[in-house]
TrEMBL record:
GO terms for cellular component: plasma membrane. It holds the Pfam family MFS_1. Keywords: Cell membrane, Membrane, Transmembrane, Transmembrane helix. It comes from Ligilactobacillus ruminis. GO terms for molecular function: transmembrane transporter activity. It is found in: Cell membrane. It is a multi-pass membrane protein. This is MFS transporter.
């Protein structure tokens, strides 16, 4: 019952967010025609992540975490409703667009540590990896189906930004209703604790695996932000095909699904050998696109990179949920996300400006950045001893 409600809520939320994000990215490129404004939009999106990662830890460790999660979804639906009614005010006003994406992503990122803490409390420890795998599979399946549909509908002018706002708002309403149904579930209202961030930071600092995960999360988020800024620009301005953006996102989703399913056959190794080797191969595929400017090269690179990143993310979530004391879980998630998310607004802003200069140089920087993950492992490998992931 609880697992189904959590899975349904997360899937619906993901679907609504994916539809809105696919449309807003193309809408910004279409209306403003500027890589800088696209980068700035993503910077405001990720600024919300950095701010909410800190606040989310306290809320996640509180006894009223479920109530907060319901209120966040209700507030986000209200923001969508207001923007839907005042959609014309967004045209020609970048600051208004920035505010919109900032407010909506505050809800999204604030919900993340709460949802994961509720999961760690409500789902049996032996079911954590399987549940995370199911969540990832459902999310990636949405990513296969939603963005292509959204971009096709947008390209054909069947649906615009107002339609995306309406659908996103409805998804928040459904999530809130599902969360209301969990109020009487056992364990969801487990009392909070008074452990602060200083104890959590000390825990991460003294734990080689957690410190590596936090630092690698920062590096990955920084350079993956470059891909996020580059992809809608590359498909619309270089390939001259807005629908290709949705196809590329779907290829990432298929890669994510394969990455999640591959864990059944290729277990998560405590040294993350598969993931580190995969990043090296991904760098090569990105560099190849400097010479093979084509949709097939794009599809292959996005597919493979997504598969590797998905395996890494599942390893991170499972590591924390199975190895960290219950009293620290909320703030551990929050702190690691805060460290990782600090990279996002900075990277989105910088890569937006770099993209206006040269999309090829952006790919080179991103590829070399991802390659640096192995350098981090070499530096820290003596401290990285993981008890278990599964």
């Amino acid at each position: 019952m609880v697992e189904k409600a959590l899975l349904s809520s997360k899937t619906i939320s993901t679907a609504g967010t994916l539809f809105f994000n696919a449309v807003i990215d193309l809408w910004v490129v279409q209306i403003f025609g500027s890589a800088k404004i696209l980068g700035n939009t993503m910077a405001f999106t990720t600024l919300a992540a950095a701010i909410c990662s800190f606040i989310g830890g306290y809320l996640a460790d509180s006894s009223f975490r479920l109530r907060v999660l319901i209120m966040i979804n209700a507030a986000s639906s209200l923001v969508c409703g207001i923007a839907f009614l005042e959609q014309k005010q967004l045209i020609g006003k970048p600051l208004t667009v920035y505010l919109l994406v900032f407010l909506l992503n505050i809800g999204s990122y604030l919900s993340s540590p709460l949802f994961k803490t509720i999961t760690s409390i409500s789902v049996e420890k032996t079911r954590i990896v399987a549940f995370n795998r199911s969540i990832t599979f459902a999310s990636q399946l949405c990513t296969v189906l939603i963005p292509p549909a959204a971009t096709w509908l947008f390209a054909k002018k069947i649906i615009g930004l107002e339609g995306a706002l309406l659908l996103n708002g409805l998804s928040f309403v459904l999530c809130a209703l599902l969360m209301v149904g969990l109020r009487k579930a056992d364990g969801v209202k487990t009392a909070g604790n008074s452990n602060g961030y200083l104890g959590t930071i000390k825990l991460i600092k003294n734990s080689g695996p957690l410190l590596f995960m936090a630092l690698s999360g920062f590096i990955l988020n920084f350079f993956l932000s470059g891909i996020n800024v580059w992809l809608p620009y590359f498909t619309t301005k270089i390939l001259h095909n807005a629908s290709a953006y949705g196809v590329a996102i779907s290829c990432q989703a298929v890669g994510g699904i394969i990455g999640a399913l591959s864990i059944k056959k290729i277990k998560l190794d405590t040294s993350l050998r598969v993931e580190r080797l995969g990043l090296v191969i991904s760098c090569g595929l990105l560099m190849a696109m400097l010479f093979a400017i084509s949709a097939p090269a794009l599809i292959l690179a996005m597919f493979f990179l997504a598969a590797i990143i998905t395996r890494y993310n599942i390893a991170l979530q499972s590591l924390i949920q199975t190895n960290v004391e219950q009293k620290y879980i909320g703030k551990t998630f929050s702190t690691t996300y805060l460290i990782a998310n600090l990279a996002l607004p900075i990277a989105s802003f910088l890569f937006g400006h770099l993209l206006d200069f040269s999309w090829k140089w952006l790919l080179v920087v991103v590829a070399l950045g991802l390659l640096s993950m192995n350098l981090l492992w070499i530096i820290m490998k003596k401290r990285i001893i993981i008890r278990n992931i599964e």
